């Protein structure tokens, strides 16, 4: 793949952005941990051992055990793969659908634009989590249902961002030139307009990821995620609530896992925004 | 002004129509027949089934069902809960004050934290203060509010025994006890909003401070206190007020989790209970109500924006 000089410059700027690099490191460590640690850890995430329930941290169980004697670290690691998968599917699906609808709306204009954008307005009027709850309640707690629910909530923002930047680029000289050359509208949209909207799309993508992870955690916290014994972080946190007085560890660690993951992606997203949109720079670069 | 408001209301019509179709189809997405739920398990009497179908209009074509439903909604009839048989609008009206109190308290928490923090961060840009404020904002944006709430309970209720870990007392019955119950939920719900607002206030201040009018004011010798306090702050607050309004609608969303953690009897908790009881009519009602509140708040924000910023043309 050829890397353009602009991309190289951006990458160099991103590398110099300290907070973004912390984000990159956090995210990479997380991904590596969820992929590699299951091979290393000796425990089964769902194997119960009631005699060793609610133990504190020890050499055998680094973060202790939960109410069924399951190893908390192992469950957090396996839970990470649920969170990251949901985050990935939801972000990818909202990206594809949102970019499609937004580009169509911005480029075609007219009635198409009005219909799509009013639909997006209507979707945005729903409190996101409430809509997701209602959808998951209707479809049942499966991976597909969770992903569909969170995607529906995620599309409008993508569509708006893309529409706005397509509108901005539509009348630029290179698009007019492409039109004068007799290129077909779809070709212009894909070849000339969308590649120039990549900045805002990229920022929205990195910021969608943590929102999706928080959404899944929220759903499973309410008991609407994957059914037990799936070790999703939200469910672990909710189950740990009942034992908080005797053993706060599970509640603290499972929540911390969500927090650190979300923060990693937010740092990365903020860094990208600093690099791509210098108007909104954060405190230190 | 009146013309603007009318036009804005007219624009809402298609949005509200789409919204109503979405909410209506929500219940029809549910796998299975609502009549089965109404009849209870194991009952298969075809006569009873036919009666129920006729009673709830389920024997009508779906389009007819939609318009009947829409007509009922427009006359303020949200239907009844499948579980308690209570009118849904009454159930919502019962819980809404608690949610409203929580939302207001959270907004106050957010405003009290974010405006000073954002201003200080912008004035001392690049300093440790700025770095600290932005670090806390990052924390606020990343922390899952249900975890933060649990940590607060762990610290203030279990370890220090200072605050009650759950429950709700109406504010006007006993303001002191009510406030004690309100502190942790409001902090939990207000954190994310505070974080977003701090970033926004900082960005707006920085943006305004680089404007020409600031240089002019300084050049004619206006003291810094006036330049910042009068000119910059006023202009930075216009978008801030808009966002406060819009985020207020968003507080309803966070209320679902916050109310669950603190056993706060608002509409968020009502929605969660409805889900557990598979009370689809009630879920439908709450979702519709929350969306309507959001639309109404956005409309108010839009109108007040025109008042605050005379540069925004009314037409």
Task: Pick out its properties.
heterodimer; A: 285 residues; mainly alpha; MetI-like fold; 11 helices; 72% helix; 0% strand; elongated; disordered C terminus; B: 315 residues; globular; MetI-like_sf (chain B)
Describe the SSE topology:
The complex is a heterodimer of chains A (285) and B (315).
Chain A (H helix, E strand, L loop, with lengths): L4 H12 L1 H23 L31 H37 L1 H16 L2 H12 L3 H28 L2 H8 L4 H9 L4 H24 L11 H9 L7 H28 L9
Helix pairs in contact in A: 2-3, 2-11, 3-4, 3-6, 3-9, 3-11, 4-6, 5-6, 6-9, 7-8, 9-10, 9-11, 10-11
Chain B lengths: L1 H28 L4 H6 L6 H10 L6 H13 L13 H36 L4 H15 L2 H15 L15 H35 L2 H8 L4 H38 L5 H10 L3 H29 L7
Helix pairs in contact in B: 1-12, 5-6, 5-8, 5-10, 6-8, 7-8, 7-10, 8-10, 9-10, 10-11, 10-12, 11-12
Structural overview:
The complex is a heterodimer of chains A (285) and B (315). Chain A has 285 residues and is mostly helical. In chain A, 72% of the residues lie in helices and 0% in strands. In chain A, helix 3 packs across helix 9 (198-221) and helix 3 runs parallel beside helix 11 (249-276). The longest helix of chain A is centred in the N-terminal third of the chain and has 37 residues, at 72-108. The two termini of chain A are 29 Å apart. With 315 residues, chain B is mostly helical. Chain B has a domain at 94-265: MetI-like (MetI-like fold), CATH 1.10.3720.10. Helices cover 77% and strands 0% of the residues of chain B. Chain B has helices spanning 2-29, 34-39, 46-55, 62-74, 88-123, 128-142, 145-159, 175-209, 212-219, 224-261, 267-276, 280-308. In chain B, helix 5 (88-123) runs antiparallel to helix 6 (128-142) and helix 5 runs antiparallel to helix 10 (224-261). Chains A and B meet through helix 4, helix 5, helix 9, helix 10 and helix 11 of A and helix 1, helix 6, helix 7, helix 8 and helix 10 of B. Chain B: Belongs to the binding-protein-dependent transport system permease family. OppBC subfamily. Chain B: This is Glutathione transport system permease protein GsiC. Chain B: The chain crosses the membrane at residues 12-30, 100-124, 136-162, 286-308. Chain B: It comes from Thalassovita gelatinovora (Thalassobius gelatinovorus).
């Amino acid at each position: 793949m050829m890397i353009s000089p602009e991309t190289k410059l951006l990458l160099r700027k991103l590398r110099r952005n300290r907070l973004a690099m912390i984000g990159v490191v956090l995210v990479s460590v997380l991904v590596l941990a969820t992929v590699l640690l299951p091979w290393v850890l000796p425990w089964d995430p769902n194997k119960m051992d009631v005699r060793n329930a609610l133990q504190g941290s020890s050499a055998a169980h680094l973060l202790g055990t939960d109410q069924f004697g399951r190893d908390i670290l192992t469950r957090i690691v396996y839970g990470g793969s649920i969170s990251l998968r949901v985050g990935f599917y939801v972000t990818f699906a909202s990206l594809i659908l949102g970019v499609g609808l937004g580009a169509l709306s911005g480029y075609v204009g007219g009635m198409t634009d009005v219909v799509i954008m009013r639909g997006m307005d209507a979707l945005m009027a729903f409190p996101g989590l409430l809509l997701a709850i209602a959808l998951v309640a209707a479809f049942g707690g499966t991976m597909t249902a969770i992903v569909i629910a969170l995607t529906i909530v995620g599309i409008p923002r993508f569509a708006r961002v893309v529409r706005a930047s397509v509108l901005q680029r539509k009348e630029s000289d290179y698009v007019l030139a492409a039109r004068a050359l007799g290129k077909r509208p779809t070709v212009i949209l894909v070849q000339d307009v969308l590649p120039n909207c990549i900045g805002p799309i990229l920022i929205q993508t990195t910021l969608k990821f943590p929102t999706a992870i928080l959404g899944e955690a929220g759903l499973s916290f309410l008991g609407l995620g994957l059914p037990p014994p799936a070790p999703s972080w939200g469910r672990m946190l909710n189950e740990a609530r009942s034992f908080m007085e005797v053993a706060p560890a599970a509640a603290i660690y499972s929540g911390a896992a969500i927090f650190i993951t979300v923060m990693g992606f937010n740092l990365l997203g903020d860094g990208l925004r600093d690099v791509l949109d210098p108007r909104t720079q954060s405190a230190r670069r | 002004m009146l013309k603007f408001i009318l036009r804005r209301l007219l624009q809402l019509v298609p949005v509200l129509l789409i919204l109503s179709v979405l909410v209506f189809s929500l219940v029809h997405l549910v796998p299975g027949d609502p009549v089965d739920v109404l009849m209870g398990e194991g009952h298969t009497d075809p006569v009873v089934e036919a009666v129920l179908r006729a009673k709830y209009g389920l024997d009508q074509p779906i389009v007819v069902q939609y318009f009947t439903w829409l007509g009922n909604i427009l006359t303020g009839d949200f239907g009844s809960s499948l579980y308690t048989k209570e009118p849904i609008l009454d159930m919502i009206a019962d819980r809404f004050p608690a949610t409203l109190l929580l939302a207001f308290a959270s907004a106050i928490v957010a405003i009290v934290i974010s405006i000073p923090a954002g201003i200080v961060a912008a004035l001392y840009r690049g300093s440790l203060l700025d770095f600290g404020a932005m670090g806390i904002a990052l924390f606020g944006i990343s922390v899952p509010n249900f975890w933060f709430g649990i940590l607060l309970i762990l610290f203030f209720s279990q370890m220090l025994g200072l605050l009650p870990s759950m429950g709700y007392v109406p504010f006007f019955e006993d303001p002191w006890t009510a406030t004690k119950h309100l502190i942790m939920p409001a902090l939990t719900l207000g954190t994310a909003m505070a974080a977003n607002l701090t970033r926004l206030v900082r960005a707006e201040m920085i943006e305004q401070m680089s404007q020409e009018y600031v240089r002019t004011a300084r050049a004619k010798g206006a003291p810094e206190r006036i330049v910042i306090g009068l000119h910059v702050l006023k202009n930075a607050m216009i978008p801030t007020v808009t966002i406060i309004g819009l985020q207020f609608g968003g507080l309803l969303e966070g209320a679902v989790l916050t109310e669950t953690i603190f056993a706060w009897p608002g509409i968020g908790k009502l929605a969660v209970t409805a889900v557990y009881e598979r009370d689809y009519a009630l879920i439908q009602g709450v979702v519709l109500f929350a969306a309507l509140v959001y639309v109404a708040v956005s409309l108010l924000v839009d109108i007040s924006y025109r008042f605050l910023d005379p540069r925004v043309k009314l037409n």
